[in-house]
Every structure is written in C-alpha cells, then in structure tokens.
Amino acid sequence: MERIGIIDLGSNSARLVVVEMLGDGHFMVIDQLKESVRLGKDMERDGFLKPARIAETIKTIKMFRKLCDAYQIERIIAVATAAVRRAKNQRSFLEEVSANCGIKLRVLSAEEEATYVYRGVINTMDVPKGIILEIGGGSTKIVYYNRRNLLAYETLPFGSVTLTELFSGDGLSPKEQTEKIEEFFLEQLKQIEWLKDIDPETQFIGVGGSFRTVAKINKMIKKCPLSLIHNYTIEADDYTEIYEKIRSMELDKKKRIRGISSSRADILPAALATINAFMKYLNYSKFTVSACGLREGIMFNYAMPTTIEKPISDVLGYSLGILVKYYRCNQKHVEHVVNLSVQLFKQLRVLHKFPRQYLKILKVAATLHDAGETVKYYDYHKHSAYIILNSHLYGITHREIVLASFVCIAYKSDDFNMSDWAKYKEYITEDDLEAIRKLGIMLHIAESLDRSMSGSVSGLNCDVLGDSVIMKTEVDGDASLEIKDALNTSSDFKRIFKKNLEIL
Predict the structure, then answer these.
(1) Dihedral of the alpha carbons of 351, 356, 357, 358, in degrees to the nearest 10
(2) Nearest-10 Cα torsion for 116, 118, 124, 128
(3) Could you give the strand order of the β-sheet that contains 286-290, starting from the edge strand earlier in sequence?
C-alpha cells in the first residue's frame, strides 16, 4: 500500500504528515511531526533568511527525512510558503536543503497556496458559501467561495510572526500592541474591494494553528468531552473573553495556559488581534474552525486528482468511505444495511416523525456499525461508537456525531450509561433519548435483515395497521435466517414504537 510524505515549511513551523493511500481516492494520515523553526524570524529587516534559522530548518527536515525512510516512503511532496517565497536568498536556501536533506522544496505562489487551503476546506466541510481566513507565520490568506466555487482570494504579506516583530518595539504594553495590530489589519482589509460585497450569509471559516488553539481553549473552558476541533464553532462572546485575557498577559503566563503551545505563545496575540479585526470589519458573530487546510488540499489533489477541477460533492459520504476501508468493513454488507435503514426510516416516518437531518445520523451509524469489530468482536457496538466519536468525520456537526455514536450503542443494547449521556449535555437533551432508541431499533432490524451478509432481503414494504406494523420483505433466495433474527427485535420494537411487529 502506497504511503507518501508531505512537508509543509511555513514561516513559523515545519510539519511532516505521513499519509497512507487506501485506494479509490481515499487516504488516512498515520503519523506526523511538527517543529517550530521560525524560518521567517527577523526577515523584515533585510529580506534574507537568517543562518541560524536555516540551520534549524535543515536539522528539522533531516528528522522528517529519517521518519519517511522508516516508513519506506519513496514519494515526498515538500512545499514552502511565504518566508521562502519572499526571501532574497531563496535559491541558495533551496540548494542547501536539497544538498543536505535530499529533498527538493517547491515554493508555492500566493495563488497556489490559497487554492490548496480552499481545497482542504471545501472537501472536508459541508459549507456551500464561505470566507476563509488562514493566518500563517509570514502571510495571511483570505479566500471567498460560493456554491463551492472559488471566487476571490487575497494574500497579505504578513502573518503572526511578522506582525509580532513589527509591533513589538516602542515600549508598548502587550494590550497596546494588539490594538495597533488591529488598526493596521483593518486598514489592509479596507483596501480589498471585493470584501465590501460579501453576502452577509457567508460563513466565516478559520484555518491555522491559532484558530485551533482558540478552539482547544474554548473547549477546555466549556469542559467539552469531544476532542474534535474540525467544524467546531466559537461564538463571538466566547472568543472575546479568550482574546481579552490572553492579549494582556505576560509571555510566561501565556505559556502556562493549557492548550497553548510554548512555541506559539509569543505570536498568538498578533493572530488573535487579526481575527478580532476581521470579525469586526465583516460583523461576524461567530466562526467555525477547520482543522484542514493546505496539507489536506495537497492530499486530496494527490489521492483524487479530480478535485483539482471539482470538489467532492458528498463530503460526508466520502469521509465515511475512508473509515469503511480503514477499518476493513464488509463494503457490500455496509451498503446493504444503509439501504435497508433508509427504507425503514422513510416507511416508518408516520410513527417517528423525525426531520430529514436524522436520516444523516442513521446513515453514519449504519455505515460504521461494524467498524468496532476491528478492535474486538465482543461489545463491538461500543467500539464502533468510540470510533464515530473519535474519527475525523467530515461534513457533519459535532451534535450529529454524538447522536450517531449513541445510535450505535442503542442498536445492540438499550442499557445506556447515563453518566456518559450526561457528559454530552452540551450536544444532546433528554428529548434525544427517544430519537436514539428509535433510530437504534431501525438499525438493528436493518442489520438483522442482512445477517448472512448475502443481500437476500433486497427491499421492504411497511404497513402501519392499527396497533401493528406489517413488514413485508422482498427476498432473493432463502431469507429465513434474516427474518428470524429481525423478529428477535419485536419486544424492543413494541416498547419503543408502541406497536407490534410482524415480518413476512
């Protein structure tokens, strides 16, 4: 199975991700390394990359190369962004990296960088209209798209490192520095003509380490049990509270805050000031964090070249497909159980009355209901629930992820651990308990109707007659095992739906 390495050399940090290609355009990150190299430090004075920074960068890339060799990786895609793009000694630096590390860095143009960031976002978020703010160490990207088409972008030649250096003198207090950065950034935004015509319904998406740091802090404050960052939304009031506390702190105190990397603590206030100015200028009351950006854009383009021309249309379906492959699920069985689950959801709508978004939750649980068998067969439904909660599922909200995980538990057992339920009170309510039980019994019936994984039950027709549900199966061959197994749910079905169940 092919593995590739992707090296992203930025102005502040260098990162390697090791990616395993699963086939059919699917991939999974299996390892990563990150180092703070500060390659762009002190460049503002004369435009040259400094010898100490170059030495640190080469040392880091050599470590990356060693890990790639351990994985027997033959193809390494290495890119450099703003600092190298602007460096007057760019050529000598690239030659030095090549000679010492055996790796050829490709310097991305501003357009290429913005495009990769866009592709990383658009293929992992179900947001048809968005404006992306990506704050790097040496540049800031603003990307606008609508109907999943890139419409405009702007790359500003400063980021968290350069802004920190520009406004660190003159005896200003930490708070005064951020105020100056906000004023400066607002003036830059006013020069971008197309920003004035942004549709107010456009969703604000934040990309980069600073956004991820804010999300981690916010989740800790709220005692959020989910570790997921991607697709996490932060309200303006929560952001302001974090910003006001951090921007006034001395550096040693910032380093002690959980969630803040010690290598990012000094440049974080500049990034936060940039975010604050952006929110004020465009009057945003919240933003959503994307954990995917440039590197993921490169991954998609390599694994699925069609995304160069057109983004993935079904983000969630694609994401689920990755996990089905990674956890070695029986793909035909998965597809059949999903199909039967959808039929049951639609034909029993008169009983459950759920809106359409609940069908998405059922599809996720049905797709990954067997994934936990990779861990252990016994209690595999609990392992499947854990996988749903902790995998990188794209195109779905955190609430929907939590609900889908509980549906996985409910489909095999109604014995909920209510302390676990209470942990997720930020996402779910007591009213959701009934919905989970109903979706769980639908999944149980669907899974039973493909018990032999042969597809012998091809379809269903459900009639609700008085106090009974008559379920007529369309079969191809002997389906006695499937029908017998599905009838074992009759008592649970009656308790949950208040109807008798007959399967013919």
Answers:
(1) 20
(2) -160
(3) 149-156, 140-146, 129-135, 203-207, 286-290, 232-235
Strands (E), 228-324: 232-235, 286-290
Q: How far is CA 111 from CA 138, 242, 378, 499, 501, in A?
A: 15, 32, 51, 60, 60
Strand-pair partners of 129: 146
Nearest to 368 by CA among 389, 397, 349: 389
* pLDDT tens digits along 198-237: 988 899 999 999 999 999 999 999 999 998 999 999 999 9
CA angle 232, 116, 152 (to 5 degrees): 90
Strands (E), 320-451: none
CA distance 439 to 112: 44
Tokens representing 434 are: 């009934």
In the block, tokens 């940090």 appear at: 13
**Distance (Å, rounded) from C-alpha 151 to C-alpha 307?**
16
Of 467, 452, 501, 476, the closest CA to residue 344 belongs to 501
Q: Is the separation of the CB atoms in 316 and 366 below 8 Å?
A: no
* The predicted structure's pLDDT at residue 187: 96
Whether pTM > 0.90 for this model: the answer is: yes
CA distance linking residue 389 with residue 382, whole number of Å: 11
Q: Which amino acid is at 437?
A: R
Backbone angles phi, psi at 75, to 5 degrees: -110, 120
Q: What is the DSSP string of 459-494?
A: EEEEEEETTEEEEEEEESS--HHHHHHHHTTHHHHH
The amino acid present at 258, given as its one-letter code, is R
Q: With beta carbons less than 8 A apart as the criterion, state whether 129 and 151 touch.
A: no
**The Cα angle at residue 422 between residues 416 and 427, in degrees rounded to 5:** 105
Return d(Cα 206, Cα 190) in angstroms, integer. Answer: 20
CA-CA distance, 309 to 376, in Å (whole number)? Answer: 41
Q: Checking DSSP bridges between strand 75-80 and strand 106-107, what pairing results, if any?
A: parallel
Residues 390/396/402/405 CA torsion (nearest 10 deg):
-70
Two tokens, residue 117: 């960031």
Q: How many CB atoms lie within 10 A of CB 376?
A: 10
Per-residue pLDDT at 94: 97
Which residues does 136 contact at the CB level (< 8 Å), separation at least 6? 10, 11, 12, 81, 82, 159, 160, 208
Instruction: Give the pLDDT score at 264.
Output: 80
Show the tokens assigned to 445.
């019936």
How many Cα atoms occupy the beta-carbon half-sphere of 42 within 13 Å?
7
Q: Is 449 helix (H, G, I), strand (E, B) or coil?
A: coil
Q: Which residues of the chain have pLDDT under 50?
A: none
Q: What gap in Å lies between CA 180 and CA 183, rounded to an integer?
A: 5
Say what the pLDDT of residue 172 is: 81
pLDDT at 393: 95
Rounded to a whole number of angstroms, the CA Rg of the chain reads: 26
